[in-house]
């Protein structure tokens, strides 16, 4: 099982199928929290698991100096050709994150961190973020909830048919190990006008909220807030996605 072999053929059509995603609203929410925790406009911000760079470009437009990092060359190729040429993109495994200069903030959206399948690897990612964050920096990320995997995704099949591309998404959630498998079948229209079939398998892990909090603590972070990413209020049993906002716990260093 390789959680990092995803987003090859799907990279070509990812933005088309994500066109209903409220990136603007998400970006404004992120800016609200960055300002709340004293990350000023113009600060250096890393977008961890940036994909095709939609959020990276949005935050760049807000005035942040953006770096985008992803493990998928296919996604980064699209990101690099879709926005500000001054944005610096890095192809890197987030478990081995190594920036040239520490960031004022690290953000991660679109459940990128759910692709980390092992709890010890999640801690490792958080450790690398801490090592690449300024002493007064902020770490803000979202993750899908256990409720979403167990109830909404579960054993369901989703399909969508468009002129340029279509997909069938078969979903399998294993409650015993918490691993969610997405089997994607893509039909992408080529320049010839014919459709080519592609198949990909993606894996994500459902983490309990307390597991994520403990991983942050073990990595040396102080948790400031955990909120429902849609309402920005206290999480509820049916929350689908959560924001975690944390800062470096300097007591750990003493």
UniProtKB/TrEMBL annotation:
Residues covered by the Methyltransferase domain: 45-137
Name the UniProt record assigns to this protein: Methyltransferase domain protein
GO molecular function: methyltransferase activity
Organism: Anaerostipes caccae (strain DSM 14662 / CCUG 47493 / JCM 13470 / NCIMB 13811 / L1-92)
BP GO annotations: methylation
Pfam families registered for this protein in UniProt: Methyltransf_25 (PF13649)
InterPro entries, sorted: Methyltransf_25, SAM-dependent_MTases_sf
Key words of the record: Methyltransferase, Transferase
